[in-house]
Write a structure and sequence with these properties.
Blueprint lengths: L4 E5 L1 H4 L6 H5 L3 E6 L4 H12 L5 E3 L5 H12 L4 E5 L4 H9 L4 E5 L6 H18 L1
Parallel strand pairs: 1-2, 1-4, 2-3, 4-5
């Protein structure tokens, strides 16, 4: 089955989620990780949380603006869930104006329960639209 959305987050965003949450809620999408301070160990933990043998990693860029452009390129024409610590005005404008639905989630290390709930509702809406 082809992905119906893309998600970009750091491995730490998936840490602390209830067991099975990531694999269950993100199974219909393509998840790419932004490298954070947790390194390979955190990426491996995220792969286990997603119940995947391999994971994609978004390349690191020198500046926040360049990193945003790389994530935007990755999003392509699919709906996007983007978890980050902060979003520029340019990113917020892009997310508001693009045709595929986009959910920007501002979170620190791990996603709080309420943000996981927002993501689950967003993805449920996407799934209903593709039926």
């Amino acid at each position: 089955m082809a992905a119906i959305f893309r998600m970009v987050c750091t491995p730490s965003a998936l840490a602390g989620a209830p067991k099975g949450w990531a694999a269950e809620n993100l199974r219909d999408g393509e998840v790419a990780l932004l490298v954070d301070g947790g390194g390979l160990e955190a990426i491996n933990a995220a792969a286990y949380a997603l119940d995947l043998v391999t994971v994609s990693i978004v390349r690191s860029e020198e500046t926040a603006a360049a990193q945003a452009e790389t994530v935007i390129s990755f999003a392509g024409s699919l709906p996007l869930v983007w978890v980050g610590t902060d979003f520029s005005d340019a990113v917020r404008t892009w997310a508001r104006e693009r045709l595929p639905m986009t959910l920007l989630v501002q979170a620190g290390d791990s996603l709080p329960d309420e943000e996981r709930g927002r993501i689950a509702r967003f993805l449920a809406l996407l799934a209903r639209q593709t039926e």
